[in-house]
């Protein structure tokens, strides 16, 4: 029995959203206070998953 990780579940949900990514700011556009390690790592892992 393979347990799906919550992160993968949310990625699948995000992919099913019609316009995901069109309105979301890129990391370069985010204000500095939001560039915390947790958020940055989540952004990177999401990008890697979508590329794969």
Poorly predicted segments: none
Q: Span between N and C termini?
A: 24 Å
What are the secondary-structure elements, in order, as H or E?
HH
The average pLDDT score comes to 58
The secondary-structure class comes to mainly alpha
Radius of gyration, CA atoms, in whole angstroms? 13 Å
| Molecular shape | globular
The number of helical runs is 2
Oligomer: single chain
Organism: Rodentolepis nana
Protein name: Transposase
Give structural attributes:
Transposase, mainly alpha, 52 residues, single chain
Characterization of this structure:
This protein is mainly alpha-helical and 52 residues long. The protein has one domain (6-50). The chain is 50% helix and 0% strand. The protein is built from 2 helices and no strands. The longest helix is centred in the C-terminal third of the chain and has 15 residues, at 37-51. It starts with 5 loop residues before the first helix and ends with a helix.
Helices and strands in order, then pairings?
Elements: H1 6-16, H2 37-51
Describe the structure concisely.
The protein is mainly α and 52 residues long.
């Amino acid at each position: 029995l393979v347990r799906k990780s919550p992160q993968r579940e949310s990625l699948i949900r995000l992919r099913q959203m019609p316009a995901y990514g069109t309105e979301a700011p890129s990391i370069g556009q985010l204000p500095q206070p939001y560039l915390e390690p947790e958020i940055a790592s989540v952004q990177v892992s999401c990008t890697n998953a979508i590329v794969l």
